[in-house]
Amino acid sequence: MTFKIQILNNISEAGLMELPGKLYSISTEQTDPDAIMVRSADMHERLIGKSVKAIARAGAGTNNIPVAAMSERGIPVFNAPGANANAVKELVLAGMLIAARQLPAALAYIETLDPDAKDLGRQVENGKKAYGGYELAGRTIGIIGLGKIGCLVADAAISLGMKVVGYDPNITIDAAWNLSSKVQKASMIPDLLSQSDFVSLHVPLVDATKNLIDEQALAQMKPGAVLLNFSRAGVVAEAAAIDALNAGRISRYVCDFPSRSALKVKGLVTLPHLGASTIEAEDNCARMVARQLRGFLEHGDVINTVNFPMLEMPRESNYRLAIANANVPNMVGQISTQMANASLNIHTMINRSREQVAYTLLDVDSPVEPDVIAALCGIDGVLSVRYLPIS
Q1: What pLDDT shows up at residue 234?
Q2: pLDDT surpassing 90 at residue 46
């Protein structure tokens, strides 16, 4: 069997090489694809055909994908959390230096100089007086969101001699283990804002974080502080940030999300969405999602999705079923009953759920006939059934 993969953006060749040609056909114009690989293309208005079994986003955020609609169809949406973390961390450090050393204004000044001027040296010495800055060592950075990126930013800031205050009420166990003991924990966002010279945001854009930094939050920031947003544009209420800049309440807003209103605002430095734009990050993201996609298509394993439970099961039989269903009572019982009715012995079965979606992998000891698959598909609440035999 050959799996057909449609790519909607340029996907790193390093990632595509994870999908061997004897099993995978990869094209931008794929007909009836089994899966779609995407980076930034907006899929909300795109017709996603019935053949699609999975979507893989070569990056962390999935705002460009209709995740809820895919969940209703039993289609997992894979992403690459942490694969671009180092790239974003380094850009945050650059953002702090841009703000602290007035680098954009200084570079703009150099562009005005005449290289043939006889007094060029004097102009440089006189001009630099307007671009004095300050050092990062001894300053305090507040980090909101302590996932992979937030933890890396914290480590880097500590190495630079900075004090670090962190806030994340939903920190994972893995992140907590990786977090330096030197990070001071803030119990509330206002506590973090009031003591930080820099505030760096590392949270996903969800209902709870939309406009997280609004007029009220900006008023709680330390006077002259720098706001850094390399997370998502909607996490900051942009109009409120511009007002805070104009009023002198904060000194800089450095972000990765250009907009019409953000251009040519004094104190607002915006970059052209460079967070994951490194060779290494693009390779890492593509490799991660390609491996996850291969594990799902060939074996039904689910790792790093935003809408399915994580479930990985070693093969104990050549005959495997992967079933996605609504997370309602008695689904496992109905699935087991259909297996028993077909005289199929279940060798191994694992079922897990996440919010509205449940997912089951089961290995059986003998081949599964099409009528059994049809019966499973006919169970009310079953979203998808895939038969994954090894020939």
Answers
A1: 95
A2: yes
262 and 143 share a domain?
Answer: yes
* 218 and 341 both lie in a single domain: no
This model's pTM is above 0.90: no
* Torsion-angle region of 88 (φ positive above 0: left; ψ -120 to 50: alpha; else: beta): alpha
Domain extent at residue 361: 309-391
* pLDDT of amino acid 174: 83
pLDDT of residue 214: 98
Whether residue 221 is found in the same domain as residue 92: yes
- Mean pLDDT over all residues of the chain? 95
Q: What is the residue type of 235?
A: V
- Examine the domain organization and report whether 297 and 324 are in the same domain: no
Q: Which 3 state secondary structure label does DSSP give 290? A: helix
pLDDT at position 55: 98
340: Cβ–Cβ under 8 A, 6 or more apart, which residues?
A: none
CB 316, CB 332: distance < 8 Å: no
**CATH value at residue 92:** 3.40.50.720
User: How confident is the model at residue 54, as a pLDDT?
Assistant: 98
What's the CATH code of the domain at 380? 3.30.70.260
- Which residues, in sequence order, are CB contacts of 57 under 8 Å at separation 6+? 38, 39, 64, 65, 77, 78, 79, 80, 289
User: What is the per-residue pLDDT for 13?
Assistant: 95
Q: What is the rounded distance in angstroms from the CA atom of residue 249 to the CA atom of residue 232? A: 22
Beta-carbon contacts of 63 under 8 Å, excluding residues fewer than 6 positions away, are: 205, 232
In the structure, what pLDDT confidence band is assigned to residue 238 with cuts at 50, 70 and 90?
very high
* Number of compact structural domains in the chain: 3
Look up residue 102 and give its DSSP letter. Answer: T
Contacts 24+ apart (CB under 8 A), 54-58: 54/78, 54/293, 54/296, 54/297, 56/289, 56/290, 56/292, 56/293, 57/289, 58/9, 58/11, 58/12, 58/15, 58/282, 58/285, 58/286, 58/288, 58/289
Are 383 and 324 contacting, i.e. CB atoms less than 8 angstroms apart? yes
Residues 160 and 251 in one domain: yes
Query: What is the rounded radius of gyration, in angstroms, for the C-alpha atoms of the chain?
Result: 25
